[in-house]
Design brief:
The protein is mainly beta. Helices cover 2% and strands 51% of the residues. The chain contains one helix and 15 strands. The strands form four sheets. Strands 4-5-6-7 form a four-stranded antiparallel beta sheet, with no helix packed on it. A four-stranded antiparallel beta sheet has the order 8-9-10-11, with no helix packed on it. A hairpin with a 5-residue loop joins strand 8 and strand 9. The model has no long low-confidence stretch (mean pLDDT 87).
Length: 186
């Protein structure tokens, strides 16, 4: 577990591009100066549902495969770097949210669960998964995130901690592993 700092603003100087999804199953790099698509990355599992830019700004986490798979697109090379499928016996899982944890290896993934019954489908409570992307396995399951994390916590600029707010507007610094408060600014 080693946090990766975001690139400095000086790294953004020079030629700028936009990345976005194209129907039916592409992620494209667009050059606004020449008004052309420079690169197209074909997704392995069909249409995209959601994209999340990683903290280091080098990868996109793209939800595909009827919301069962997260595909990792490497932006500098314009290639598909990996796929991560979420399955559970007896259930259909739908990925609703992917958040990168400090260090970039672990993700918080919110899934909706639909149980396959003999004669019907029934909806179960959503779950949060702590997912290890290097091992391709779920490390921990939670019914919900801690309250401070659930309020829309974001990564700090250096990528080492979660930042959130409490009900009084205080800035909270949260431990990335234990999801507990380590400091606050009133």
């Amino acid at each position: 577990f080693k946090p990766v700092a975001a690139p400095p603003l000086s790294g953004l100087q020079g030629k700028q591009y936009f990345w976005f999804g194209l129907y039916p199953d592409f992620i494209a790099q667009y050059d606004p100066v020449t008004d052309t698509v420079v690169k197209k990355v074909k997704l392995a599992n069909g249409m995209f549902w959601n994209t999340t830019l990683t903290h280091d700004r080098k990868r996109l986490l793209v939800v595909t495969d009827q919301q069962r798979t997260v595909e990792v697109v490497d932006l500098p090379t314009g290639t598909l770097a990996g796929t991560h499928t979420f399955l559970e016996d007896g259930f259909i899982l739908r990925i609703r949210d992917v958040r990168e944890c400090p260090g970039g290896v672990h993700w918080l993934v919110r899934t909706e669960r639909v149980k396959k019954e003999v004669d019907r489908y029934s909806f179960e409570a959503a779950q949060w998964l702590v997912y290890d992307s290097s091992q391709k396995k779920t490390v921990r399951k939670m019914a919900k995130l801690p309250e401070a994390m659930d309020r829309g916590a974001s990564l700090s600029a250096d990528g080492t901690q979660w930042l959130s707010q409490d009900n009084d507007g205080n800035l909270l610094f949260l431990d990335a592993r234990k999801l507990t408060e380590v400091a606050r600014i009133d």
